[in-house]
Amino acid sequence: MGAGSPDASGGRDIRDVAVVGAGLSGCLMAVLLARRGYRVRVFERRPDPRLGAGDEGRSINLGLSQRGINALRHAGLLDRVLAHAAPMRGRVVHLPDGDLGYHPYGTSDDQILRSVLRHDLNVVLLDAAESAGVALRFDARLADLDKADGAVTLRFEDGAVVEAGTVIGADGAFSTVRARMQRGEPADYHQEFLPWGYKELSIAAGAPGDRRADPESLHVWPADGGLVVAHPNADRSLTGTIFLPLTGPGGFDALRTPDAVRAMITARFPDLTGLVPDVVEQFLSQPTGHLVTVRTAPWHWRGRVVLLGDACHAVYPFYGQGMNSAFEDCVILDGCLDRNAADHAAAFAEYQAIRKADTDVLADLSAANFVELRDRLSSPLFLARKKADLALNRLLGRRWVPLYTMISHTTTPYAEALRRSRRQNATLAWLACATAAAGTLLIHRLSRQGK
């Protein structure tokens, strides 16, 4: 049965696919489907980003880790993406007193992250989709979705009506496909906003050797009531993101004048003004972004509609896994289609069964890592615990792997990584207690001998 021909029920071929959303996961999934011989059409509400300035101001730079690398390699696109990426070998921590700390990301040279601008990555994926024969349509804002067993009908705000055998919703955290798919169905949906927002900052390339602007590190400014994170770019500049509460005395709502912004930056992030002389002007000119977690079920409907990425599991950006987990969705869904080529209902059900528990764990990890970045990076006890983790990893290899390493440098399922980390933490706590008890006993014996 050729793509686009009727199926046995008289409806459209399930291999006639409409992808709603030409972002990262939508484009990657379109490439994988086109290579399977599917007819793929992608609909995007925005203009073509290849013709404009891109997404500056709306999103945080992306850290490509092992899950994303694995997905891009699976699609044959890794080299094209790495040409636009900058390595991040560790984390430079800018402390309020002006001191700098450095924390490597792993114990070997290959355990690094890659920083890439969302716009650059999206352009690579759009070009790859177009080259694979995918039809792209921009300025197409979805208004409604009519479900039927034979075909799904998409209705757009400009009046266009499109029928497809299968619809993939890759249209983000506020997905129209998800809302219309779940309408009239028994569905769970939970959305949680972080009471913090963000603005982007551009940081020019620093002088060679200046660790304050190291172009091969992630930069973090932890502060009381604030956080700045900056990713390197291929041109050695940094793209910074300043996170603050949305409301309150030190929040975005109160920072509307140059004097207020300057006072806040000076108090919380004193070395930032030296790196970004126009930080006040940038701050006031940028929009405030919001951060949301989405948990929902089901992710699919009758083999005709399925969700990807943020549409089914949006997370906060603080573990750097939003893009990577969305790319991993594509690989896992592709594998499910391998095993259930003629039965999308079975493929989609298997995909959700594999992914749902893991992405729920990722949401919790991402929220917890926000607290780590904001409050704990300057804690000697916390840093000692991290160093102990890395030392045990060097000593024991795969028998002891830090949680961050499992999440960022392997494709270990998120839930399994958390279980393993908890077992390791329990072991470390037991060893600490045993060591303390042995030390106390030794001191007691020595004191008795001295009498």
Automatic annotation (TrEMBL):
<keyword id="KW-0285">Flavoprotein</keyword>
<keyword id="KW-0274">FAD</keyword>
<dbReference type="InterPro" id="IPR036188">
    <property type="entry name" value="FAD/NAD-bd_sf"/>
</dbReference>
<dbReference type="Pfam" id="PF01494">
    <property type="entry name" value="FAD_binding_3"/>
</dbReference>
<dbReference type="InterPro" id="IPR002938">
    <property type="entry name" value="FAD-bd"/>
</dbReference>
<keyword id="KW-0521">NADP</keyword>
<keyword id="KW-0560">Oxidoreductase</keyword>
<protein>
    <submittedName>
        <fullName>Kynurenine 3-monooxygenase</fullName>
    </submittedName>
</protein>
<keyword id="KW-0503">Monooxygenase</keyword>
<feature type="domain" description="FAD-binding">
    <location>
        <begin position="16"/>
        <end position="333"/>
    </location>
</feature>
<dbReference type="GO" id="GO:0071949">
    <property type="term" value="F:FAD binding"/>
</dbReference>
<dbReference type="GO" id="GO:0004502">
    <property type="term" value="F:kynurenine 3-monooxygenase activity"/>
</dbReference>
<dbReference type="GO" id="GO:0070189">
    <property type="term" value="P:kynurenine metabolic process"/>
</dbReference>
